[in-house]
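INFO batch 0412 | record 1 of 1 | parsing
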Amino acid sequence: MKFCIIGLGVFGTQLARNLSQEGHEIIAVDNDASHINGLKDEIEYLIQADCTDLNAFHEIPVAQCDAVILAIGKDFEASLSIVANVQQLGAKRIISRIINPLHARLLKLLKVDETMIPEAMAAAWLANSLKSPDILTSRALGGGYEIAIVQVPGHLVGKTLQESGLRERYELNLVTVAKSRGSSAINSTRQPVGKVLGNLEPTRVFEADDVLLLFGLEKAIHRMIADNK
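INFO prediction complete | emitting tokens
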């Protein structure tokens, strides 16, 4: 996919890096040369421009991007001007960082419904990691269900998938298994999983460095982990 990220502070820079590492095409834009230089060895398409000026977009293919992400962290007036500009240029999808409640209300008036507060998202993620350190990451799907990446509990090590009781006892579906890179979800930005094993045979034995990709009820995942305590 192709993303345009406007604003290369701490959040915008890390977002650009992560998306680029996942193989997406990134157009990264900022009006500060030092921010641009900080990514020159990692991102191919870097543009120094003041996006509050509509004329600055002559080399930014907004309409060709799958999404435009406004990662500006301080100046919400500039953010609003940029929203108006990318809307005028035919942006398919706009995602904007929220700076304060007034900014959020004004974005809603501009019909920008996809907004985020990175600090709040990071705090929620950290709180969840502190509460359940065995869960490396998770995504709620609604209705109490979630997809979670979980370090294999000790009580499953040495057992086969068939013997694990994941489906029979916990009503959990194992999507696949990957190998752990040994990174903590709390203290590392490194991707916590390495090689993905793909489809599994029922006779495959769980190993201590396995990471499980599970689908099921959140409470069932926590119950499975608690059985290891």
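INFO post-check: Helices lie at 10-21, 33-37, 76-88, 101-109, 118-131, 161-164, 166-170, 218-226.
INFO record closed
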